[in-house]
Amino acid sequence: GDVAVTWGDVAKTLDCLEALLPRLDAEPGLLAERFRWVKLKDGAAFSGYYEPVVKASRTRKPGYTAPLYRVPPDLRELNLGSFKSELIGQRVVYRMEKGKPVPYYTRAEIDGLDGRPGVLRGKGLELAWLSDPVDAFFLQVQGSGRLRFEDGKEMPVRFAGSNGKPYLSIGRYLADQGEIPTGQVSMQSIRQWLRDHPELRDDLLRRNQRYIFFRKGPETSSGSITSGPVGSMGSPLSSMVSLAVDRTTFPLGSVLAFDVNIPDPSSPVEEGPVSTTPLFGIGLAQDTGEAIKGRRVDLFCGKGARAAYIAGHLNGPGEIWMLLAK
What we know:
By secondary structure, the protein is of the alpha+beta class. It contains eight helices and 17 strands.
């Protein structure tokens, strides 16, 4: 609220950083000399995300029964900012029923977690089938990933839309219920809880009503995809550099310095407090997320087991600054 930033400031800062990059290793003081550091008041709440690689089938068959859907044709979206400036960034997702707009289906209704058949089943909207509904759920939480088919081919799937329902963290819910200690909530501990309580899986998953739809990319040979998923800016994300932010806090394209303790993948733990290691870096605001609001900052951690461990356990405070060329 105390700093006015224009798109010209953002562009000038990017140009300045690019010009200085070859010199920064030898002359790190240039960061203080050439840039103004604007600190985010009260710090940032850091979390992490990564690009999962999951086994999939192009058709439904035994062992592959959890669908990934494309955007349904009956899903409609209204941008409220087109009507009132104070509503910029807010939208309503709906469908038409008997000539009237109604809220779009919930996760329970789409995946059949309410005891009835899923409302999208059999409509030809499936992009692929996964072996585990929990894998499908966490793929939606990450917002993108890669499918690996049995013939060795891979296909990226990217965020294409949502049902507009509110997001609920099932990890926070389990902590509130006393099922997982607050300091031990992670993607890994949630998966373990689900393995230990299979009879409660559907009831837990349905509590997060938000449902994500995907679009598919071209199939390639396994391991031939070298770039990361594409963020909101349309650029491939870079491991430990790209950040998902709230655009009302940081403009997309911002150069951000950050200081946070991240989970130490060289000292993994199954239970108890996670060992951490300090990370200080220069990042780029290149992505957004429907659950990334206010001071929340999501660090893209890459792909593979190491990235999954860091992203799954990263959930804590840190400091962040927006760099502006002087």
